[in-house]
Amino acid sequence: MSNTLRIIGGEWRSRVITFKDAADLRPTPVRVRETLFNWLRNDIVGSQCLDLFAGSGALGFEAVSRGAKHVVLVDANPDTCRELQANQVKLKTDAIEIVNQDGLAYLRQSRHRFDVVFVDPPFRDNYAGLACSALAESDVIAVSGIVYVETAADCVFTPPERWALLKQKTAGDVRYNLFSNGPGHS
Question: For the segment 78-132, what is each residue's pLDDT rounded down to a tens digit?
């Protein structure tokens, strides 16, 4: 089954992207995306972004729409990646790179450096904790880069020690957090 969501701001405001149902696929709610991109308004323009568990692509496409220079969308599901590619073609952008790979494997081999990283993994088995630990151990986050982490509201999540919490909110069954990769970001 195909689903749709709207990009809520920027160049592609009101444009629709599609995605198919898949196990653990749960697009970030509109209210949460709106708050997140308000938080990022001073950081997103011209940035290099990584959407580590892309799913619907909502966060990555929204980032490009709002001025990100380049976004890498990583997802392990080949069908999901094909849908992301179809949306990329529909929006006529080369600012998006799609990688069909497990997020943790991508972190182990990537040589890119990112200003903003979106971590929105499936809500199971403390995957957010595993992903954030792997992210902190990798070299993909720029010094003072920003990390967005989305978890279930009842998830007990301990961020890596050097990350500084900038913002946190809960909306329904979703808790969302914004961290700085160390000091130096306000």
Answer: 999 999 999 999 999 999 999 999 999 999 999 999 999 999 887 776 788 889 9
Look at the chain and count its residues: 186
Contact predicate 52/128, CB 8 Å: no
Q: Is residue 129 part of a domain?
A: yes
- Asked if residue 186 is part of any domain, the answer here is no
Residue 22: which residues within 8 A CB-CB, separation 6 or more? 55, 77, 79, 80
* CA atoms in the 13 A half-sphere facing the CB of 103: 24
Rounded distance between C-alpha atoms, residue 69 and residue 86, angstroms: 20
- Structural tokens at position 182: 């160390």
Q: Beta strand 114-119 with 48-51: parallel, antiparallel or unpaired? A: parallel
We report the CATH number of the domain holding residue 25 as 3.40.50.150
